[in-house]
Design goal:
- It is a single chain.
- The chain contains 16 helices and 21 strands.
- By secondary structure, it is an alpha+beta fold.
- It starts with 13 loop residues before the first strand and ends in an 8-residue tail after the last strand.
- Residues about 520-525 and about 525-540 have low confidence and may be disordered.
Amino acid sequence: MTEKPMVLMPEDVQRILGKDAQKNNIMAAKMVAEIVKTTLGPRGMDKMLVSPTNDIIITNDGVTILEEMQIEHPAAKMMVEIARTQEEEVGDGTTTAVMIAGKLLENAEKLLDKKIHPTVITKGYRIAADKSQEILLDLALKITAEDDDILKEIAKTAMTGKGAEDSREKFARIIVKAIKQVENNGKVDLNDIKIEKSKRDGIKDTELIQGIVLDKEKVSYDMPKIVKDAKIALIDFTLEIKNPEIDTKISITSPEQLHDFVIQEELEIKSMVEKIKLSGASVIFCQKGIDDFAQYLLAKEKIYACRRVAKSDMEKIAKATGGKIVSNLNELTPFELGNAGNVEEVKQGENTFTYIKECQNPKALTILIHGGSEHVIDEIKRAIKDGLGDVACTLQSGLIVSGGGAIEIELAKRLREFSQGLSGREQLAVEEFASALEFIPSSLAENAGLDPIDIITELKSRHDSGEKNAGLNLFTNKIENVLEARIIEPLKTKSQALNSASEVSIMILRIDDIISSTGKESLGTGLKQGKEKISPDYGDF
């Protein structure tokens, strides 16, 4: 009798082994890095992303591009994940992190072709990553919260190349003022800074509101449009008759009983409004619904009210006004009320906003972005978010480094010097790690229309002669001392990018077997935007 063949996995499972698996993953990672490469720096280009429903996003923000692309390849998804982590931890540097990871894997491929084992490469990369963090700390400069000029320059550097150049100075002032206002013992919660959009005027009219702007209108036309010296009640329950929590039947057998029932409901709502009036509140923000009769009574008492306000907005209003969110009307007293100099309903085109302004020492603020189109406003919003993230992490760490590719060139130089003391093949991996860092200044030059080889050669020469802050100033297209040119970045941006890039590249290099049960297509390049491939199809490996 012949032996039956052993079936380990179903027939639709596909496996890619050894070098083929490594090359497949490296190819996908390189493609992701190449996609975002052209967006780097102040002279970077934008991407237009069109969804299957024809929604358009125009941006050069790395994490936005990668998230909207609907990437399918598993290794490429890991690259998207490091961009997302960079965005959450720092708020900027997503393109840098992805590009370094892609270049590390590309350089590792050269070593694999020389028969160097992946374990040796990953060991060398770990050594280089740890040494890079030491060198970064050695090169970093300390600043304090009082260095407003430096903080503004950091915000301006973060926003450069994102469509905000003409108003960088104003935006930088807004960002620094907002961050310092909500800072609490050296800690900054960026959720305390609300960014609201207004499609009117130009981006130069963007303003910082000492309070909160809500995308809400008053519930009744008869309510006052403006309330001065507002006393604000924040309630998270309905101003309606509560429905019983269990199934209940009410039996009414006569018109008189129905009349009494309706009257009783009205009395209940009148009692609620009376309690609000007695508390001294002149403005109400309700997290839930407000009954029509309650709206009438509130308007009669000249009380401004908004309903169905999001919980996150309620918390921001509480921080801005000093009020407390009340869950029971019997607990509403003058001590729970917040204060604002002005609460006003403002119509802007088709939109209506409620401004809560002139709050005393607010711990939550609003940046109101103006612009002529939705696409422009969205890109300015992303630029301001990058600026906020950079300034916040700078204040928390108190450390900065030089920008313009200067820090990467100096890191590469010192890593190569360090590698000379290594005896094993790890030395080659450390040298390739150093070469990967040069991909950043090289891409900055290329995106600006400069010759990257000439720029890298001159940068290396200047750093070898001791000019550790020599970098590329793309406003003058010259190599100069970038610290003096005020091209500065937070240390956290660079350290997080290096950490994320080295970790994901090491993880991908350690993969030698890909087992897929989702069909043959999933192991291709898998880089799609909607239903259309946006990059060449390299087929299956």
